[in-house]
Amino acid sequence: MTTTDTYDAVLIGSGQANTPLATTLAQAGWEVALVEREHVAGTCVNEGCTPTKTMIASARVAHMVRRGADYGVRTGSISIDMARVRQRKRAIVETFRQANRRRLEAAEGVDLLMGEGRFTDTQSVEVRMNDGSTRHMTAEKIFINVGQRPRQPDLPGLDGVSALNSTSIMELDEVPAHLLVLGGGYVGVEFAQMFRRFSSQVTIVQRGGQVLSHEDGDIAEEVIKVLREDGIEVLLDTDAEGVEQDPKGNVRLSVTTPEGDRTLVGSHLLLAVGRGPNTDRLNPEAAGIEMARHGYIKVNERLETNVPGIYALGDVKGGPAFTHVSYDDFRIIRTNLVEGGDASTADRILTYTVFVDPQLGRVGLTEEMARDQGYNVCVAQLPMSHVARALELDEARGVMKAVVDAGTDRILGAAVFGLEGGEVASVLQVAMMGGLPYTALRDAILPHPTLAESLNNLFSSFEN
Fold first, then answer.
1. For residue 247, is the peptide bond before it cis, meaning its omega torsion is within 30 degrees of 0?
2. Which pLDDT score is estimated for 462?
3. Which of 350, 401, 405, 403 is nearest to 375 (CA)?
4. 3-state SS string over the chain?
5. Least confident among 1-15, 108-122, 156-170, 198-212
6. Is residue 155's pLDDT more than 90?
7. CB distance 114 to 130 below 8 Å
């Protein structure tokens, strides 16, 4: 006979929403099963934020050492030890991963099950354990936090090529001679600049007319300018038509550009054309879960699916795929189910940072989004070359841009493409959360010389 275990909650996936949710529910007296297929702590710790930003830090050191003469510091030639870069990345990932796992295993009321979960009906989950056994369980509450994985483009010849994705590229033990990057989104531009600083020749192939398609065009142009200054070839409005690997192991990518057909020859190919949800083996149909396009799960503002008691959190529900969004999803569930509150995703201020160098810190609406939503906007812009602190540090590339509601003087959003742009954008986020008018930052007494002080000047200059 098949034995079915009964829990108060079954959590499928241990991303940045379900991991804290498991211990929170257990502390509230729930019996919890947390199912994880591979690594505890989700994409952020294992394949996303932690490893990539660790490697970006190594790349920045290489960049700054090469710039020593700009600061009057004599340096010699440098070389990149990719195996050491990789080992540093692995060590930090392992530290974070094991810390999360130890917390879960020590939590009373949490059963951590290493295996793959799939629905068998609206309240039942079957788990194929990694040891080969099978577990069956039922619960009144089920939380899905299974994340995403890199998409595979429909590109002729790709099956015969040793292509890389955003996970496998971080396992290289050598610097690519020439890295071809298919895709100019957030992942593509971060890895492109990283490996350029590791001394690779790099070419970005972007199908659209700008990189970072979710950003305002003028900000995307500033990013392209920096990438090209760093020696990266950026091909826009360029379609990949086919790919093959020659007898020497080189990748030959056929593309159509506005100037005509080309064949790009590289040592490595990175596929950075987006990510898709890990719902294909979840069997949501068995539970009657309503799905959105491309395999995402539909939820309302309280993260509820159409099936009572089933919730979707993090990347799997579509929308902005950021760790802090996933963590805020956890807070919404905690507020509503544990604390008896009424939290939702409505009016959540979106903020994120693209870790190119300089950083692109973003908060709230872009200019294009604000105009599309009917706002009468004023736009403030300030080149980073007008920021004293950036000049003192000789890192004055980029621009700051803020969008203000002309009727209320409230800040609608901002892009800070400059030194520590993510930190400066966070200052703007706090002002937006407090409902401050832009004049509060324009007239604030901020310490000199800091990057935040530049907000005085940013909000003193508007264009119609």
1. no
2. 85
3. 405
4. CCCEEEEEEEEECCCCCHHHHHHHHHHCCCCEEEEECCCCCHHHHHCCHHHHHHHHHHHHHHHHHHCHHHHCCCCCCCCCCHHHHHHHHHHHHHHHHHHHHHHHHHCCCEEEEEEEEEEEECCEEEEEECCCCEEEEEEEEEEECCCEEECCCCCCCHHHCCCECCCHHHHCCCCCCEEEEECCCHHHHHHHHHHHHCCCEEEEECCCCCCCCCCCHHHHHHHHHHHHHCCCEEECCCEEEEEEECCCCCEEEEEEECCEEEEEEECEEEECCCEEECCCCCCHHHHCCCECHHHCECCCCCCECCCCCEEECHHHHCCCCCHHHHHHHHHHHHHHHHCCCCCCCCCCCCEEEECCCCEEEEEECCHHHHHHCCCCEEEEEEEHHHCHHHHHCCCCCCEEEEEEECCCCEEEEEEEEECCHHHHHHHHHHHHHCCCEHHHHHCCCCCCCCCCCHHHHHCCCEEC
5. 1-15
6. yes
7. yes
Which pLDDT belongs to residue 379? 98
Segment 112-122 mean pLDDT: 98
Residue range 436-443: average pLDDT?
98
Residue closest to 19 by CA, chosen among 1, 37, 42: 42
Neighbours of 102 (CB within 10 A): 11
Q: What is the mean pLDDT of residues 43-57?
A: 97
Asked if residue 208 lies in contact with residue 234, where contact means CB atoms within 8 angstroms, the answer is: no
Cα Rg, the chain, nearest whole Å: 24
Q: What is the pLDDT of residue 1?
A: 58
- Res. 2 pLDDT band, cuts 50 70 90: confident
Tell whether the model's pLDDT for residue 464 goes beyond 60: no
Catalytic center residues = 448
* Whether the Cβ atoms of residue 113 and residue 125 lie closer than 8 Å to each other: no
Q: Is the dihedral of CA 14, 20, 21, 22 positive or negative?
A: positive
Q: Hey, which residues does 254 pair with through a beta bridge?
A: 242, 263
Q: Which two tokens stand for residue 271?
A: 């596929």
- Whether the per-residue pLDDT at 13 is higher than 80: the answer is yes
pLDDT band for 463, please (50, 70, 90 cuts).
Answer: low
Sequence-distant (≥ 6) Cβ neighbours of residue 106 within 8 angstroms: none
